[in-house]
Amino acid sequence: MPSEEPVHAICAMGVEAWGVRRRARHLRVVQVGIGGRPPRGMSGIVISAGLCGGLLPDQMPGMVVIATQVVDEQGVTHACDPGVVAALERAAQYLRLPVTSGSLVSTAGMVTGAARETWAGRGHVAVDMESAGTAESAQRFGVLRVILDTPSRELSPAWAEPARAIRRPSNWSEAIWLGINAPRFALRVGAVLEAAFLGNIDPEV
Hints:
Helix content is 32%, strand content 29%. The chain is an alpha/beta fold and 205 residues long. A five-stranded mixed barrel has the order 3-7-6-4-8, surrounded by four helices.
């Protein structure tokens, strides 16, 4: 059954916000930009929603990440609301999507190459740039991400600034891959949110 509390999806990029709005039409979407954070003191359920980087060798693009906690680069830890986590996990299971759960780290910049192994060695399964900031703004907080890049499917660090990256011919093959998969994975985020908070399964939140 739908949540009785307002549900806010905090998205960094336009494609992420588009995916949520397209699939979970009645959720409230706040777009904050790459590395941004929403206003403090948000009411209801707040979900850091969008794409992320995978840190483990066996992960594949398209895998759903449902974090149990978020850690920033200084080690400050924010626990995700257990009821929200359960709702998201149940929705992903209902949709038969591959899921990984555990600790997500939020960093100030893109993580690629050997840095993935470093963060994985500290116990994290995925990385983004916004979830820690979002956690500070909410009372009931969760993370729903879909892995875009992995140790075996790297992206150029240039994509931290997409408008500049697209102007470099060396990035054009990646641009085609991103143009196909980023929207597809963003819709996957929206589908899980729809099932968790707007659909017919009982998320028990």
